[in-house]
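**User:**
If convenient, please work through this fold.
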Amino acid sequence: MNLRKSHLAAAVGAALMVGGTMVYAQAPATPTVQVYGQVSRALMFADDGTQSKWFHVDNEASGTRFGFTGNAQAMPGLRAGFRIELDLQSNESQRVSFTPAGPVSNFPGSTSDVGFSERHMDTWLEGGWGRVNLGQGDGAANGATESDLSGTGMANGIGVADLGGGFQYRTSTSGFSGLTVGQSINQQDFESRYDRIMYVTPSFSGFRAQASWGQKANTDAKEFSAWYGGKLGGLG
């Protein structure tokens, strides 16, 4: 294989977190709304054995985005909430390459490579019986291959194609195979961000189960997962 691994020589991820709460008078049934966001930029260096170049990119591992969340007590013992999240990325790290390419946009017909893209459009109801989510969001098993307690997901995530996934394998000094790194590597995780309904059970001694059903790219997606979280003796 003539393509050498794309290296992240230096990365600067600056998160500009904005938090705010709108508080109303009738505690404890107080509705809250929070605004959040981040700017996530990286400096990436790639070398395929013939060409090398530095790229200024938006880090696809966790891109530039902003959103709104809110919740309120709908009635005694029942809360309702929502999440709206959009991303706005310029020069995405999984799209840059050595091969000529036109501008990539989230808006058909646009000549700009920057555009809003929906991530989460989700609403939920929660009570002692668990929680139901309805709208665009993660599936019930998403994140199973990405569980990591180290807290280093931005720099050490398993999404190999997030950084350099748009580069093609080189067949010679003057030719490319047509196959990109992103097309040949899959992190084997489950479905993220599609229109679905999902049920999450309450936690029982650290265990919980989740089930979801919906459509992604006009295909039915059904997921089920079981999770456990807790301390294992002196292991933490």
About this structure: Residues 1-27, 102-112 have pLDDT under 50 and may be disordered. The first helix runs from residue 153 to 156. The longest strand covers residues 116-127.
